[in-house]
Specification:
single chain, 153 residues, alpha+beta, 3-stranded antiparallel beta sheet, two-stranded parallel ribbon, binds zinc ion
């Protein structure tokens, strides 16, 4: 199953002409998923290894970033608060107290992780920095703006 998932991740990145795949640092998994069993933590590490191996042989760059606040930050307006979740039914929902953005918590955190990496790279001023975060619905640039402008983000 991990092989299938990692293949799909890499294929999707290639299909969308991505240059990077960014993960949250795996030692953060313990805080984000405090009830995860040892086998789940093992699975995350394995998945990361498989993705790295496959992606790098296809010329993609795989990175990990510190996920601090990425689950509390609203990926739409930037408002960061520990009470931003969950305010609807279920634990998986992110809800921004400021702008009302309502979306799956993992999707919100993933957008923040991509954006954080993007901003870190641009700050460092190195050449070849990625230019946007690929979403299902389009592309998000370093300022958090979408192109094309989308209703569903
Ligand atoms: Zn918001």
């Amino acid at each position: 199953m991990l092989h299938t998932i990692s293949n799909e991740l890499v294929e999707e990145a290639l299909e969308n002409e991505c240059t990077h795949i960014v993960f949250e640092q795996l030692n953060g998994i313990r805080e984000r998923l405090p009830h995860a069993k040892a086998v789940h933590k093992w699975a995350f590490h394995r998945l990361y290894e498989y993705v790295t191996y496959k992606a790098e042989s296809d010329g993609l760059v795989v990175k990990q970033i510190n996920p601090a606040y990425t689950s509390q930050r609203c990926s739409k307006c930037g408002f960061t608060h520990e009470d931003n979740r969950p305010h609807t039914n279920g634990q998986d929902e992110f809800g921004c107290l400021k702008c009302g953005y309502d979306v799956h918590a993992d999707y919100n955190a993933a957008k923040n992780i991509g954006l954080k990496y993007l901003r870190d790279q641009q700050k460092s001023g190195r050449g070849g920095a990625p230019v946007g975060v690929r979403l299902n619905s389009g592309m998000m640039n370093v300022n958090g703006e979408y192109s094309p402008t989308v209703l569903h983000s």
